[in-house]
Sequence to fold (390 residues):
Amino acid sequence: MTPLSRPAPRTARDTVRALLAGMEHDAGRAGFALEPSQRQAAERLAAFGAQLTGRRRPLPRKAPRSLYFHGPVGRGKTWLMDSFYGQLDARKRRVHFHDFFRRLHAGTHVFEANSGTAIEQSVDALLDGIDVLFFDEFHVHDVGDGMFIARLLRSAAQRRIPLVVTSNYAPDDLLPNPLWHDHFLPTIEAIKEMMDIVEIEGPTDFRRFPAAGTAPAEGFAAFRSGRIVSPGTPAQLGRLGLFRPAPSQGRVLQPTTQPIVVRNSDPDVLWVGFEELCGGLTSTADFLVLAETYKTWVIDDVPSPAGNDWASAPSWQRFSNVVDVLHDQDITLFLIGEGPMEWDIDASGSDLSVLPVDLARIASRLSLLGRSEHHDGVDSAVHSEEAAGS
Fold:
């Protein structure tokens, strides 16, 4: 009896070609071609994927070096990572920066022997059962978060689990606060030791200036359907199906430990003021819990970034975290304020010292939202579309 023939095993070169072709196909479907720096990054990802899958062969190879992609906002870092993630046949996990810390903090409540053991066990739980961890929007602004990152890197190295990281920061620029930067230098050196650093530096912010003929990227349809509304007249809001809640509709929510006064919370819609959401002691954990319940958010009375009526610096940083969470969770977002509601980092008259340190990324993300503006009795609507990712 003739044995059944089996297909020849795929070589590493075949795997590289298949992964690269898959990413190029995804770009073509979205209506654009990879720019030179994007293609270089895609080639590096494809080679990484071939090494990773090659470890399952009879003579396993050593773990591939981790990858750290960085560059300005809107250059396609997240898009490339997500396309590669979809192509890769491996045990994998993708986490966003904020969700990562939520998992770790939740884990430290589950494993409550002592703080050191709790952190180690929660990190180990995150890495359990995977071949590779994808970490999107990597940034460090708090020395406490830096301690978690250092533990993650040590655990991943011990388990020989490589990471694929995207960031708007080069490693040397992480934890930029001069009061704490020196404390993070050993971790920066560990990142450069265990990761290949790849810059994606194309000239175009695809969120702000999508290429001609580019189709909107999949995965953020809900976020993109939101609006920036100024000044928020009843007529403007009514055309969007929004009606300001009556005072009797207000209530208090407590997503984690911090109570938040909101103006309304229908089954799917959360309506809250900027000050109530960002001016108190709320945390990213609160925003993540609320995003699981409410798929449409309306944030009212948003101060003008170009004006002089400033919220405090911590309030703007919380607002930055809100935008990050809602974009990543694909939540419909409406921002209402007197205006002008411009988020460019060089906004005229802005005291940038009180604005969030990641304003460029937030401005890029908010550029995805359409605009409803009212000038001299005339309403105008401006629409934005996303192209090649973040």
